[in-house]
Specification:
It is built from 13 helices and ten strands. With 344 residues, it is α/β, with parallel strands linked by helices. The chain starts with 7 loop residues before the first helix and ends with a helix.
Length: 344
């Protein structure tokens, strides 16, 4: 997801001003704007408000910006629930900005896959959706359906391959998976850079944003791109014959988490909001609306929706989460190395 902030500091101030603010019946959360925020309201916020009679105040702020606010407000936080897609909950929990969660207070926690609730005691909230990164391909133009990350190296595809710059979060995860499939690690990304160099020499191109991927598929004869499952759905809605497949070596995952902010007075109400976020109904709704992969094992999806996501025990078994802390620590150096590679 591209990070954006919509005058968040002003919005938070406006939301929380006035002595009439009812702490026990109002929650302040962040959401990510656009279609995501619409789905967030439909799938979670509206059901929460209907069930509890509480009100939810939304600040539109993507993960990096929301985390910066949380840090700045450490002594007087203004969010009750904070949502992240870039692993910021790991750092936030370590810094004491997030509260540990008692799973017994979440009626839906028992239905979550283990990976989605692994660090409640540390303060890391549950993953309530997954953006799965795999192979998006044109099911009509591509000579074969890809099955492996190594298929990206097929010479027959080179002139029809779209790579995404690693300044893009999904692009970073796709690159790290290509690097791993070529024998690289988070300590050594050179195999991935070497592979990218060969692909560019053979005719592949690099774009920076998801709309550029759509343009390449629609206008410039692109057949395949390592990218997120939800984007195959976006391409199909635009009239393109796109499908998504998980690579056999594994599926990088961007965890979208819902986290309990520390030092807030209405944590019971906030826990109720988180509980609804991880419910079967909410996750089915997110999958239907946006093609995010559910983390609730009880979620039931139609065949059409299931084909676009990592679904069920088998589907989630191959999910890989590259350490967000290591990514962040190395991001600057990796981007510099990437830029040198694609400039050659």
């Amino acid at each position: 997801m591209k990070y954006r902030i919509a005058s968040a500091a002003v919005a938070v101030s406006a939301v929380l001003s006035g002595t009439a603010f009812a702490q026990d019946k109002t929650l302040t959360i962040n959401s990510f704007g656009g279609a995501y925020e619409q789905a967030h309201r439909t799938c979670v916020i509206d059901p929460f408000e209907k069930e509890t009679g509480a009100k939810v105040q939304i600040v539109t702020a993507y993960s990096a910006d929301a985390f910066a606010q949380l840090r700045a407000q450490k002594d007087a936080p203004q969010f009750d629930v904070i949502n992240f897609s870039g692993g910021q909950e790991i750092v936030g929990a370590a810094e004491g900005l997030l509260s540990p969660i008692d799973a017994s207070k979440l009626s839906n926690a028992g239905d979550l896959y283990d990976f989605a609730k692994a660090n409640f005691a540390k303060g890391e909230g549950p993953a309530y959706s997954i953006a799965a990164i795999g192979l998006v391909y044109d099911s009509v133009k591509s000579p074969k359906a890809p099955t492996s990350w190594k298929d990206l190296l097929d010479p027959a595809l080179s002139e029809h391959l779209v790579l995404t710059d690693i300044s893009n979060g999904y692009g970073m995860l796709g690159f790290l998976m290509l690097n791993q499939s070529e024998g690289g690690t988070l300590e050594n990304i050179q195999p991935g850079l070497d592979a990218v160099s060969k692909l560019l020499e053979a005719g592949a191109i690099v774009v920076s944003t998801s709309p550029e991927i759509q343009q390449e598929f629609a206008q410039n004869d692109a057949w395949i791109a390592p990218y997120a499952s939800d984007y195959a759905y976006t391409l199909r809605k635009a009239g393109l014959t796109a499908k998504f497949v998980q690579g056999s070596e594994g599926t990088p995952a961007s965890f979208i988490t819902s986290n309990l902010v520390a030092n807030r007075p209405n944590q019971e109400l906030a826990l109720k909001f988180i509980d609804i976020s991880i419910s079967k109904a909410a996750q089915e709704c997110f999958a239907e609306a946006l093609r995010y992969s559910p983390t609730n094992s009880k979620a039931e999806l139609s065949g059409e929706v299931a084909a676009d996501v990592a679904y069920g025990e088998e589907g989630v078994k191959g999910l890989i989460r590259f350490d967000p802390a290591k990514i962040e620590a190395n991001r600057k150096a990796w981007v510099e190395a990437w830029n040198k590679t694609i400039a050659q």
